[in-house]
Design brief:
The complex is a heterodimer of chains A (422) and B (523). Chain A is of the alpha/beta class and 422 residues long. Helix content of chain A is 38%, strand content 16%. In chain B, helix 10 packs antiparallel against helix 11 and helix 11 packs antiparallel against helix 18. Classes of the chains: A alpha/beta (422), B mainly alpha (523).
Chain lengths: 422, 523
């Protein structure tokens, strides 16, 4: 008797926490799919986004749910395995019948699930900055397109305030995102009159740890004029790179490095001394002062403490993809309310033009046509405590250009999803 | 500090100093960068010591603004920049944020003020800073300083700086003189200057002088570059040597295919991390010495794990290489997960002590980082130690004996099981030392070992299994080869080419660089 009671109690508790999809409860809930890797190499970055979605769901349920129903999370683990992403997406849509999915980090995982979402006409919110060159009716991109991160950063470095760089080192890890971003940047730099010989592109393998030659080359290259480095180095290769840079005597004010993949979460567990003064370009920094951000950070800290999120329970950190998830979720809730239903096509129509006060201090708007957010771009300088000082920002939100005008093949592509006729 | 105050006082005597006003302090600390730079340049016209200390504080990121009031913050106490008196610091005061442009202007301004310091070293440092960003507006002051300078080294540096500024002069003769004279300098900064000038120069004679000087500088710089490549190659080689040396014993001498070798390195690196934390909390004064203490700790930690491993698993599997491979691979997974549970999946920060940060400037364009130099020296020491141990000690004799003929050694009364344990622990301990060294150049995380395990097997196989000397040649050879190819073809292709080279080499010479000679009784 006693045991059965205890069993019931635990099931009830688990259901309350929204961890277990219970068929008995399923009838009057709206299901939200969470498709982030919780194991494997991407777990470090992605698992916190799962917690962000869970936090938002708990928050929405505390406010009384949505359309009179409770929200229910369905969490699956695609384990940093790209084909598994597609399988899990199909499972979420066909078996669990989720109304919406929040998920993916790497471009290759997004490319893997895209046909599934299009085939089954379901909805995906993708929260990470990416290389553009994609536009689907079924996806809302809440991270930055290249013109919302890479190009403003380069413009800043070209400006007098940013040091007036004349020569460019485009340095990256060898995979899709850096290659495409650098292709766009190269075309952009050329359009600004930068000579071919003033641009070098260098790639390293994943997990590269010996940056001696590259730093020596940068040093040599920088003797030819004011040089800036645009780094799309991925993951923990950044640490040996910055260490080598510091030891070789290249200071941030001589050769500034702007990174697109170094954020608050990446700087956790890093000796930041050699990085101080180098730059990062994002659409959100935890150090931004705005009422919306204070609320966001407080919500996250409370949630992380209450739910023992590893790492964050002692030192809660927020970052750009988390903010993008937060905005995306809130906009989805608003769109569902406006549409009065979770029907995918009606929600997609209702999403266009939604606005939300973003933690970055702007009013973020979902573009009416191209499924991307309008975003402000911030350039931050790395501080010794692993946070960023904002040294520059765009005057206002920038509209996303998923088809970069700097790639010739994109000429004539429509800035809105093309819906195939059936 | 006292010297600083002294020359500030001197400065005040010679120049009719203009006193810092609150408006000026505010203009320096708030507003957009260009207006702040304008305020800075205005303040530099005969500054008083209050102005200088405000600029110093701005450069140190120690200034806060609240409303229109500016505060200098030192040791959490607020000071009024105008009067210098201690004042209460409002909690809402915001830190003044400098961008890189502002920071270089501040540094240049400080250097400019320090040009008239009585301390020769301060003056030399100031000239070097100013040479980094030549500003024609400062030419008269630099001419004056040049005329007044007595110390030859500083006079020369000032002369270079003066020529650098004269390069932009409207007077053709002066430009020509400067272009010719700068050919004697050997710094990359001068090269930059000459290149810039070359773009805009119209006079044929000056252009020729510029080109001549450039060629002279480039040939001087080329030597630095060549030496740089050799150094990076040796440095990579020394890291490869360290990671492979332990394996040369466990795999090379004992024949154990130890897939957990990388994880033993990781344990050494984590031991360094733990020692660092202990020093930080208990002996903050001796923090810089933590690396020294970490060396024996990482050795012992990895050796202990290695000994347990040998006693509990490996000793049952001697002579069964496939089973050893699988078992040690499983152990590597267990060790990684254990570390993840203990320390978390994230990388942990290991700081370089001050004496391992920065570098030794050998030539103007060749800086050898201290941590790399230290690792080369450390690798040599470990190598010497291992060589001496194997060649000259009783344990080394036993190890060699057991490797060559286990049964005969046992007949002679050698406790072969114990020798195996010792040898394996030694190999593991050396892996721990490698981990300690790696913590100074790279990341420390649970996956640390994974990225080096292939490299270490590569070195041992290439060098010839069972030979320490082969390991040394292979490590240094691969290091230098890799760096040469990297400079030529980039990191991605260099890695592929090195692998192709090894495949071909092993095809032609399966026994590696050095073959085991003589009667190796056991196959």
């Amino acid at each position: 008797m006693q045991r059965r009671f205890a069993l019931k109690l635990t099931t009830a508790a688990m259901a309350a926490a929204g961890m277990l999809p219970l068929s008995a409860l399923a009838a009057d809930t709206i299901k939200v799919g969470v498709l982030h890797s919780l194991s494997g190499t991407m777990a470090i970055s992605e698992s916190v986004l799962k917690d962000t979605v869970l936090m938002m769901i708990a928050d929405q349920n505390a406010k009384g749910g949505l359309l009179g129903k409770k929200l229910e999370a369905v969490v699956v683990d695609p384990a940093s395995n790209w084909p598994l992403f597609a399988e899990k997406a199909r499972q979420l849509i066909t078996q669990d019948k989720v109304a919406v999915t929040f998920g993916c980090w790497t471009s290759v995982s997004r490319k893997s699930v895209l046909p599934v979402f299009e085939e089954l006409n379901s909805l995906l919110f993708y929260p990470v900055q990416y290389e553009g060159e994609e536009l689907s009716k079924n996806v809302f991109y809440t991270g930055a397109a290249p013109n919302q991160q890479a190009i403003p950063a380069v413009e800043y470095l070209m400006s007098k305030e940013g040091g007036g760089a004349k020569r460019w080192v485009l340095l990256g890890t060898d995979y899709v995102y850096p290659r495409t971003t650098n292709k766009i940047l190269r075309a952009f730099l050329k359009s600004k009159g930068v000579d071919e010989k003033d641009i070098v592109e260098t790639y390293t393998p994943f997990g590269h740890a010996d940056y001696q030659t590259i730093v020596a080359d940068i040093k040599k290259f920088s003797a030819g004029g004011k040089t800036a480095v645009v780094s799309t180095i991925n993951g923990d290769s950044n640490v040996p790179f910055y260490k080598e840079l510091g030891n070789a005597g290249l200071k941030a004010k001589d050769v500034p490095v702007v990174a697109f993949s170094v954020g608050e979460e990446e700087l956790r567990g890093v000796d930041t001394k050699p990085l101080v003064g180098h730059l990062a370009a994002w659409n959100y920094f935890m150090s931004i002062k705005s009422p919306a951000n204070t609320e966001f950070i407080k919500k996250w800290s409370d949630y992380a403490k209450a739910n023992n999120v590893p790492g964050h329970k002692d030192k809660p950190l927020t970052n750009d993809p988390m903010e993008a998830t937060y905005i995306g979720f809130n906009m989805w809730v608003q769109a569902v309310k406006k549409a009065g239903t979770t029907d995918v096509d009606k929600v997609i129509t209702a999403m266009g033009g939604q606005t939300f006060p973003a933690p970055s201090g702007i009013t973020s708007k979902m573009d009416e046509k191209n499924h991307h957010l309008w975003k402000s771009v911030f350039i931050g300088e790395i501080r010794a405590d692993g946070q960023f000082n904002v040294v520059w920002k765009t005057p206002g939100p920038v509209r996303a250009q998923p088809w970069s005008p700097f790639i010739p093949e994109n000429k004539g592509k429509k800035d809105e999803p093309v819906i195939a006729k059936k | 500090m006292r010297r600083f105050v002294l020359w500030l006082a001197l400065l005040c005597v010679f120049a009719p100093a203009q006193a810092l006003t609150p408006e000026q302090a505010l203009a320096l600390s708030r507003g957009d960068t260009s207006s702040r730079i304008a305020a800075l340049n205005a303040a530099l016209d005969a500054p008083d010591d209050r102005t200088v200390s405000l600029i110093q504080a701005l450069a140190d990121d120690a200034v806060r603004v609240s409303g229109t009031a500016v505060f200098i913050v030192r040791d959490d106490k607020g000071f009024d920049p105008v009067s210098g008196a201690e004042v209460a610091l409002p909690a809402a005061a915001e830190e003044v944020i400098n961008n890189n442009q502002m920071r270089s202007e501040l540094d240049a301004a400080l250097a400019f003020v320090k040009l008239s310091s009585p301390d020769a070293e301060v003056r030399l440092a100031a000239v070097k800073t100013l040479a980094g960003e030549p500003d024609e507006a400062k030419l008269p002051a630099i001419q004056k300083a040049f005329a007044a300078e007595k110390v030859p080294a500083i006079k020369e540096a000032l002369g270079d700086l003066r020529y650098a500024l004269l390069l932009g002069s409207a007077d053709r003769a002066k430009r020509l003189e400067a272009a010719t004279a700068l050919g004697d300098s050997g710094t990359p900064a001068t090269k930059t200057l000459l290149l810039e000038r070359l773009k805009t120069e119209s006079d044929a004679q000056v252009t020729a002088a510029l080109k001549g000087s450039l060629a002279a500088i480039e040939s001087r710089l080329a030597w630095g570059e060549r030496l740089g490549v050799v150094f990076t190659g040796v440095s990579l080689g020394s890291i490869l040597l360290l990671v492979a040396l332990g394996l040369a014993i466990t795999y090379g001498l004992m024949g154990v295919i130890n897939m957990a070798h990388g994880e033993l390195m990781m344990i050494g690196a984590y031991a360094t991390y733990v020692v660092q934390n202990i020093f930080r909390t208990h002996f903050p004064g001796a923090f810089d010495a933590y690396v020294i203490a970490a060396i024996p700790v990482s050795f012992l930690a990895a050796a202990a794990v290695g000994a347990v491993l040998e006693r509990s698993v490996i000793r049952w599997l001697y002579g069964r290489p496939l089973e050893t491979l699988l078992a040690t691979w499983g152990i590597s997974l267990i060790l990684m997960q254990a570390v993840r549970n203990l320390f978390g999946a994230q990388n942990v920060p290991v700081e370089n002590p001050a004496w391992l940060s920065g570098g030794w400037q050998v030539m103007s364009n060749l800086t050898l980082p201290y941590n790399r130099i230290a690792i080369i020296a450390f690798a040599m020491l470990v190598l010497a130690g291992v060589a001496a141990l194997i060649a000259h000690t009783r344990l080394g004799l036993f190890v060699r004996g057991v490797t060559q003929n286990r049964k005969m050694a046992a007949c002679m009364g050698v406790n072969t099981a114990r020798v195996d344990t010792y040898a394996f622990a030694l190999g593991s301990g050396i892996a721990g030392l490698a981990g300690c060294a790696l913590s100074q150049v790279g990341n420390v995380g649970p996956d640390l070992g994974q990225s080096y395990i292939v490299d270490s097997f590569m070195v041992v196989v290439l060098g010839g299994v069972g030979q320490l000397a082969g390991t040394v040649y292979a490590a240094l050879g691969l290091g230098v080869l890799n760096k040469l190819l990297e400079g030529w073809q980039g990191a991605v292709l260099a890695k592929i080419m090195v692998l192709v080279f090894i495949v071909i080499f092993i095809q032609k010479r399966p026994q590696g660089i050095f073959a085991m000679k003589g009667r190796s009784a056991e196959a």
